[in-house]
Amino acid sequence: MAAQEYLQPALAGLDPTTEGVDPALPLYATTFVVVDLETTGGAPDGGGITEIGAVKVRGGEELGVLATLVNPGVPIPPFITVLTGITQAMLLPAPPIEQVLPSFLEFVSDAVLVAHNAPYDVGFLKAACAKHGYRWPNPRVLDTAALARRVLLRDEVPNRKLGTLAAYFRATTTPTHRALDDARATVDVLHGLVGRLGGHRVDTIGEAIEFARAVTPTQRRKRHLADGLPRSPGVYIFRAADDRPLYVGTSRDIATRVRNYFTAGEKRARISEMLAAAERVEALECAHSLEAEVRELRLIGAHAPPYNRRSKFPERVVWLKLTDGPYPRLSVVREISPGDRAYLGPFSSRRAAELAAAGFHDAVPLRQCTHRLSLRTVTPACALAELGRCLAPCEHRITPQEYDARAVTPFAESTTGDPQPVVDALLARIEALAAGQRYEEAAVLRSRLAGVLRAAVRMQRLAALTGIAELAAARPAAAGGWELALVRHGRLAGAGVSPPGVHPRPTLATIRATAETVLAGHGPVPAASPEESERILSWLERPETRLVETSAGWASPVAGAGRFRDLLTKAESAASHQLWSERS
């Protein structure tokens, strides 16, 4: 072999914008570059490559060849010379790797890189690129050794060495430990393995790469469940033999997402258990991602699939409200009614509600005892009254009117309007504790402040949307046209997509005519789960979303809880940092 032999003309410089091959590309249409390296036998440190051989093929046809010796800049170990036949004298006139890389990287662009024991070859190439300042294009890589371990049985071949596989598939070139010969032999092995993939329902390059990875027998056996699913946004449901929903998910591309459950990347134990019980996958196509997210939430809430962890019990929310009577107190309840004077929520757990209640108790003198007080009968005071932390309405030390002004009104105004008095009181206490170096107590109050603000911001944000009888919005669709959503009292009542180049008004009129009727109710989430209304809010608040029509103004109080979002972010960030510090 000559010192440098390019069987394909030298190519132009490397295009830095090269992207990987589409995983959905059929195997017969995929361009492969089969590569083999000879090295000095050391670790991949940026050098050590003595020869590169690469063959470009597509559909069984050879498109080009690149082959060259490489001067590694270091002596060749004698055992390498014995193994490969490459001598020091052969390498002295050869170009160094930094001169070879541009042509090689151009050669492999827009192709799938194939090698036998690919991590070894790819490791040397990536290290060489890093050392000499070339961007590794990060191509998709297919390892014929790994693929052979999945395709061939032990009674077919005793091992997966290149020489063994080349003989099994009757390769036209025998491996000789020279780069080009070994690359040509690997091409024949690749073609033989691809021919065996059809029986495993592997038709695309993405499926072939995933098939070569380690997957469980269950994943391989149930892989057919992903067949025939649509490549569109929607919801997918894994169902058991008795048609019970096992797991509900959503995706912009149902087919691609479901196929991922049968790849090596899926390692969750509960999902493996779910796949073992699944017998079919049902797909519900949706107009766009918002409708898919809402459908997912509703299906999970309706069926409580055993392998979903979140959103299973939307009805399990709690509220913090003022009790009835002359001296109200805070109570954690499951439901609220139109007669309630003031309330805050919804909270996802009783613990979150109690954290917010503790924050209000630190800021305003609401009584904490659970006695039912009477304007006629005096009840003995508790320790909090003796400590000056309660106005002692039980002993009638304060009139109902004074109690209302000092304790009840600040809570009521914080829930629907301005929480400034509560925030100021808590910040003052936090500063006093910090000044006295009582940092742990200050951190507790900071968490309570965050609990109060988080609940108030959430409720006022939800109430601003759910108070609107009807709202229509649109955002540009990726394929053209507009994604349309009709929202009534915070519930998605209708969805659709207008065709590209067509005015969206007729589509919106059709959506409105067929939309769900939603009646007004009580509270900040009268017609949908809090999660559904918040998903809608997130969709509406995106910069590209446009409001089309509203039956009423969409607004939040100017002096409402929303103006404390920065303070809430700081409080939550400080709490997270403290938790991380304690754990580390």
TrEMBL record:
It holds the Pfam family GIY-YIG. Residues 231-309 form the GIY-YIG domain. GO terms for molecular function: DNA binding; DNA-directed DNA polymerase activity; exonuclease activity. InterPro entries: DnaQ (IPR006054), GIY-YIG_endonuc (IPR000305), GIY-YIG_endonuc_sf (IPR035901), GIY-YIG_UvrC_Cho (IPR047296), Ribonucl_H (IPR013520), RNaseH-like_sf (IPR012337), RNaseH_sf (IPR036397), UvrABC_protein_C (IPR050066). It comes from the Bacteria. One of its GO terms (biological process) is DNA replication. CDD domains: DEDDh (cd06127), GIY-YIG_UvrC_Cho (cd10434). The keyword Hydrolase applies. Keywords: Exonuclease, Hydrolase, Nuclease. One of its GO terms (cellular component) is excinuclease repair complex. NCBIfam families: dnaq (TIGR00573), PRK07883.1-2 (NF005904), PRK07883.1-3 (NF005905), PRK07883.1-5 (NF005907). This is DEDD exonuclease domain-containing protein.
